[in-house]
Amino acid sequence: MSPPVLGTPWRELSPSDKSVEPLIIDGQVIPPGIQIGVNIYAHHHNEEYFPEPFSYKPERRLESSTPIDQRKRMQEEFVPFSIGTRNCPGRTLAYHEASIVLAKILWYFDFEVAPGELGKLGAGNSTLGNGREREDEYQLYDVLTSTHDGPNLIFVPREYFHEGVIGNIEGIRQIH
User: What is the pLDDT of residues 99-129, one digit of tens each?
Assistant: First the structure.
C-alpha cells in the first residue's frame, strides 16, 4: 500500500534497436529515445491487479482467500524494489530484515493509532486535493531526502514479553 520509493521506473526503447515492430502502448506509437513508465504507487493501486487497493487486506495473499491466478498476477505486479537491470540489489536483505523486525514488533507489542489529532497526522483529507481525500490512507510524497509526518502509534508492551526486548537492549548497550 505504501511502496518504499514513489518514483517511476523509466524505460525507453534504445535508438539502436532496429526491431521491425514499433513500440505501441494503448494505441500510441512511442518513438525510440522517449522515456515511458508507470509510477509504482499507481501500479500498486491498480484494481485490475489488486482488488480494493486502498483497503488493508493482508489476507488477499493467502491461499485460502484468493484464487491462485489472482495471487500470481499480484506477485508479478508487486515491484516495490523496481524490476529488470536496475532493481535494488539489496532487496533480499531488506525483505529479510523487515520480516524479522516486523515479527518481533508484533510478538512483543500491541499497538493502536494515537488518540486525537496525533492519530490523524499524515492522513488524507478533502483540503489536500484530488487523490488525497481518503482519510484512512496515509499520504506519501516523493521527496529526495528523508521526511515524515506521521503516522503516530502507541506501542504497549505485552505482559512479560517486553522483558526480553529490554534485556536485549541492555545487552547491546554493554557490548558498545
Answer: 999 898 888 888 888 888 888 888 888 999 8
97 falls in which pLDDT band (50, 70, 90)?
A: very high
Location of C-alpha cell 494515537:
114
* 155, 103, 43, 12 alpha-carbon torsion, rounded to 10°: 120
- Could you tell me where the beta strands, DSSP code E, fall in the chain? 11-12, 23-25, 28-30, 35-36, 109-113, 153-157
DSSP string, 71-112: HHHHHHH--TT--GGGS-TTHHHHHHHHHHHHHHHHHHEEEE
Say whether 42 sits in a helix, a strand or coil.
Answer: helix
Q: Which residue has the cell 494505441?
A: 27
Contacts of 43 (CB under 8 A, 6+ apart): 49, 77, 79
The strand pair at 35-36 and 28-30 is best described as unpaired
Residue 52: count of CB within 10 angstroms of its CB: 9
Q: How many residues does the chain have?
A: 176
Q: What angle do CA 117, 153, 147 make, to 5 degrees?
A: 80
